[in-house]
């Protein structure tokens, strides 16, 4: 069993910054891609950023130049540094990880519980 624990969400003013963290724990052999998704009220969940095990990152066009995804493989943790935040960034942010567990035949996607990010003055 694998669990993703998210932290770092909160209320911030436009132009401010937040840093989200997501730590994977449990029966982990290796972690492939890790990423962040978000879902605003009335909208479908969308990919924000994803990073491979080797550190290659991709971003949604709406966050390019403002957000940075990174990971610490030794800690099984992925981060999302969010700068120059805008009201339209307001959403519940979900961590995602593709995890290969000990004793498993293939990797499985796991999701964090979600953390609220609110950008408002």
Tell me what the structure shows:
With 121 residues, the chain is mostly beta strands. Helix content is 0%, strand content 56%. It contains no helices and eleven strands. It has strands at residues 2-7, 10-12, 18-26, 30-39, 46-51, 57-59, 67-72, 77-82, 91-100, 108-111, 115-119. Strands 2, 4, 5, 6, 9, 10 and 11 form a seven-stranded mixed β-sheet that branches. Strands 1-3-8-7 form a four-stranded antiparallel β-sheet, with no helix packed on it. It is elongated and about 50 Å long. The chain starts with a strand and ends with a strand.
Overview features:
four-stranded antiparallel sheet, 121 residues, mainly beta, seven-stranded mixed sheet
Distance between the termini: 40 Å
Outline: elongated
- Rg, please? 14 Å
Overall number of strands: 11
Uncertain regions spanning at least 5 consecutive residues: none
Structural class, by secondary structure, is: mainly beta
* Percent of sequence in beta strands: over 45%
Alpha plus pi helix count: 0
Could you provide a short overview of the structure?
The chain is mainly β and 121 residues long. The chain is 0% helix and 56% strand.
What is the strand and helix layout of this fold?
Elements: E1 2-7, E2 10-12, E3 18-26, E4 30-39, E5 46-51, E6 57-59, E7 67-72, E8 77-82, E9 91-100, E10 108-111, E11 115-119
Parallel strand pairs: 2-11
Antiparallel strand pairs: 1-3, 3-8, 4-5, 4-9, 5-6, 7-8, 9-10, 9-11
